[in-house]
Amino acid sequence: MTVIDVHTHVFPQITCREGALLSDDGQPWLRVDGGGAGMMMSGDDEYRPVGEALWDPARRLADMDAAGVDVQAVSSTPLMFGYAAEPGRAADWCDLVNERILAFCADAPGRLLPLCQVPLQDPALACDVATRAKVAGHRGVHIGNHVGDRNLDDEGITAFLAHCARLGLPVLAHPWDMFGADRMRGHMLPWLCGMPAETQLSILGLMLSGAFERIPPSLRLCFCHGGGSFAFLLGRADNAWHRRDIVRAASPRPPSEYVDRFHVDSAVFDPRALRLLVDVMGPERVMLGTDYPFPLGEMEPGATIRDCPGLDDTECALLLGGNAEAFFAAAVEEEELVTEGSAP
C-alpha cells in the first residue's frame, strides 16, 4: 500500500534580496540560523520559527522514511502567495518560487510531487504561469482560498479553475489571510477558528453561486483541513437551500449534491470527526493530509485514518494513498514518461 500525503509545505531557501522581487518592504524570505533552525521572514519582521524540514529535502526524506510516508505533494507556504503585489511582479515571483520548488523535489522525483503557485490576483496571468509550470514539471497548483474580497466563485478565479481542468492540473486550495482577525486575538485563534470558516465559505460559495455548474467536472480540486467546518454544517446548508429561495437562487441543486465535485484531506485530528467526514464525502473523496512540517499538523501521519471507527482495510487504503494516486494519476504517468524518455 502506497502512503501519499497531499498536504505538506515547503519554504525554499530564498534570500531577502530575492524576496525583493515581490515586495520592497514586506518581502517573504527565509533566514537560516544554523543548527537546523530558521525563521520565516516578512521583510524585517520575524513571522514564524521553523525547522530544516521546511527547506532541506534530505531531512524531509528522512522524516518520510521514519513515518512510513512514500510520497508527499509539496506546496509553498501561504506567506509566499504574493496576492497583494502588482500582477507582473507577482508572476515573476511565482516563476522563481516554482523553480525553487522543482529544484527541491528533484532530489527524489518519485517521492516529492511539486505543486506550483500562481498570481491569482490576475487570472489570465495565473493561467500563463500554471501552463509554464506544468510544462516545467509541476504536478499540481496550490492556491489560497480567496484574493482580497474575491472568493473562489469570482468569475476570473472560476475561469482559472476551468483552465486547470483543461490542463489536467490538480488544485489544492488552502485557507489563508483569515477574516475577522481583529476579533481573534491570541491563542492561534485565526488558525483554529478562522481557517475552518474560510474553507467552509469557499466550498459553499462554489456550490450556492452556481460556480460548480460552470467549472468542468473534470477539475480535480482538494480543500485542506478536512474542508474546514463544511461537513459538520452541511445539513444546515441543505436545510436553508430547501427552505429559502434566496439561498437556492443561483444553485439548481442542494449543496449535498455537489460533494462529488471535490476532495478534502484528512487533517481533522480526531477519528470521530474523520468518521463524519467520510460519511459525508464518501471514502473515495478523502485523502491523507498532515500539514507537515508545521506543529499544528498530524505528527504521526495516517494515525487518524488508522484509528477511524468503521473503516475497512479497502477504505483505509483509499484514504492513505489510493485516492491520491487517482488524484495525481495523470501527473504520475507524465513523470514516468519523462523518466523513460530521458533514460540512456
TrEMBL record:
Q: Name one Pfam family in it.
A: Amidohydro_2
State which pathway it belongs to: Secondary metabolite metabolism; quinolate metabolism
Q: Tell me, which GO biological process terms does this entry list?
A: secondary metabolic process
Keywords linked to the UniProt accession: Decarboxylase, Hydrolase, Lyase, Metal-binding, Zinc
Q: Which InterPro entries match?
A: ACMSD (IPR032465), Amidohydro-rel (IPR006680), Metal_Hydrolase (IPR032466)
E.C. code: 4.1.1.45
Tell me where on the tree of life, at the top rank, the source sits: Bacteria
Instruction: Give one GO molecular function term.
Output: metal ion binding
Give a Gene Ontology cellular component term annotated to this protein: cytosol
Which ranges carry the Amidohydrolase-related domain?
4-328
Self-association state and partner proteins as the record states: Monomer.
Can you tell me which family this protein belongs to?
Belongs to the metallo-dependent hydrolases superfamily. ACMSD family.
Protein name (record): 2-amino-3-carboxymuconate-6-semialdehyde decarboxylase
